[in-house]
Design goal:
This protein is mainly α. It has a single domain, classed as Growth Hormone, Chain: A, CATH 1.20.1250. The protein is 73% helix and 1% strand. It contains 19 helices and two strands. A two-stranded antiparallel sheet has the order 1-2. Helix 5 packs antiparallel against helix 9, helix 11 packs across helix 12 and helix 16 packs antiparallel against helix 18. It is globular.
């Protein structure tokens, strides 16, 4: 493979594959911890006597931790390293899984989910930037997109595990093993991949960009030599040094302010916008409330859990398409395609839900073929999301910022992303009743529509550019 100066990169494909595989376990944990709540809500409601608002708080608790976890991790990764931050996230995942399953009250459960959220937030911003900093520019988009595949794999794994455990026990609230309900085992099962993640992280090196920023140039050159060969390593260390602040101070939050204008750097506003729009289209309503949503319009719990698995499988397929395209057609075209597709499919979901009538038992029912319209449109929506905004947002946040501000910009953008996530997720149970599912999906469709014009006006293509060449 040719480098930016026409020289041949002696890429250690085995090491590159290893670091991507291990780092993206963080994506799997992100997805699993986010998705495990989908299918446990009947158990939570019964165990803790929760109402609609209480369910929203318990489901949304992870997002409080995630927003702060993302912010802290962005800065922490500049202090203890990308790998050190991911190891801390693994410990948080493990502790949260054990405590959430054992929770005897809503307060303890919320605390456990906040701990898990800290891990999710940390993994969400640290894994993409680590992959971006360890891979060649020519394939960086494809390899960074594996993160989204693993997020969806984690979600699907949680959906599948929840379905199997609920089917085995006879329902999510039924007793499974050792006298504990199935929904508790859904959380405890997460401890296994969390432990694997921690142990795997012990076998990969630290990011060379972090090492140079900390003044550890010899270590950075050693890592780069292992990745790309000695000649490229020596040149790359010099390029990384040149991309840092002129006075060579360590990255800090105040670097986000342009010293010339005294204003926030424009590139940060673009990152914040991309991060927020990814959530305003309502994707995590599907991830967090999918089973409850489909039950609300007449499907059984068992069939609703199966729909989750189908959606997850389609999402993985869409992510694979994104991997094939992202370094061919670029990031910006994929975002535009996704925005247009989500606008149409969300509008169709809203139309289908507008036909809902109240059944004899008081539940909502979609008449005629509208149930099928809602189901197909919702799944097409997840396909459009996962071929575009799902992977591309994380890829861009990991690569679009200059080296000096990458950790700080990720901290702020990640915080904004998780705050938007929390706002959408916590508000959904109430919005689903007033003003109703149809109007709620109209709002998500409007957000997708506006995102198209935001991308067209503000996003600069990053395909094939070296991280040292990013401006902002």
């Amino acid at each position: 493979m040719d480098g930016p100066n026409g020289d041949k990169l002696a890429i250690n494909t085995r090491l590159v594959a290893l670091v991507v595989a291990v780092a993206t376990i963080g994506g799997f944990m992100f997805g699993y911890d986010s998705g495990v709540i989908n299918g446990t809500q009947n158990g939570l409601e019964a165990a803790f006597q929760l109402g609609r608002f209480g369910i929203g708080i318990n489901v949304g608790a992870i997002l409080v931790g995630s927003s702060f976890g993302a912010f802290i991790a962005g800065r922490l990764s500049d202090r203890i390293g990308r790998r050190g931050t991911m190891m801390l996230a693994a410990v948080l995942f493990f502790g949260s899984a054990l405590l959430a399953g054992a929770a005897g009250s809503s307060a303890v459960f919320i605390f456990a989910r906040i701990i898990g959220g800290l891990g999710v937030g940390a993994a969400s911003v640290t894994s993409p930037v680590y992959i971006s900093e360890m891979t060649p520019a020519e394939v960086r988009g494809r390899l960074s997109s594996v993160q989204q595949v693993m997020i969806i794999t984690g979600l699907t794994g949680a959906f599948l595990a929840n379905f199997v455990l609920a089917r085995w026990a006879g329902g999510s609230t039924a007793t499974l093993w050792l006298g504990f309900a199935a929904w508790r085992w859904m959380f405890w099962l997460q401890a296994i991949p969390a432990l694997i993640y921690f142990l795997a992280l012990l076998g990969i090196p630290e990011s060379p960009r972090y090492l140079v920023a900390r003044g550890r140039k010899d270590e950075a050159q050693d890592v780069l030599t292992r990745l790309f060969g000695a000649a490229t390593a020596a040149r790359k260390v010099g390029e990384i040094e040149a991309s840092l602040a002129a006075d060579h101070h360590r990255p800090k939050l105040s670097d986000l302010v342009d010293k010339t204008t005294g204003k926030i750097r424009p590139i940060l506003w673009v990152g914040i916008g991309i991060a927020i729009f990814q959530q305003l289209v309502g994707i995590n309503v599907v991830f967090y409330y999918g089973a409850t949503l489909w039950q609300a319009v007449g499907f059984t719990e068992d069939f609703a859990l199966q729909i989750n698995i189908i959606s997850g499988a389609l999402s993985i397929g869409a992510c694979l398409v994104a991997i094939a395209l992202i370094d061919r057609i670029g990031r910006k075209p994929l975002l535009l395609i996704g925005s247009a597709g989500m606008t149409v499919t969300l509008a169709l979901v809203a139309w289908a839900f507008s036909t809902a009538v109240t059944g004899a038992d008081g539940s909502l029912v979609l008449p005629g073929h509208f149930g099928l319209v809602a189901l197909v449109s919702a799944n097409l929506y997840t396909v459009f999301f996962n071929v575009s905004w799902g992977p591309v947002m994380w890829v861009m946040l990991g690569e679009m910022f200059p080296n000096q501000i990458r950790g700080s910009a990720l901290a702020v953008s990640g915080f904004a992303q998780w705050i938007a996530n929390a706002a959408i997720s916590v508000s959904f149970p109430t919005l689903a009743v007033t003003p109703g599912l149809s109007i709620t999906y109209v709002l998500y469709a409007l957000a997708a529509f506006v995102s198209f014009f935001f991308v067209r006006a503000t996003v600069t293509e990053t395909r094939g550019r070296e991280l040292e060449d990013m401006e902002g």
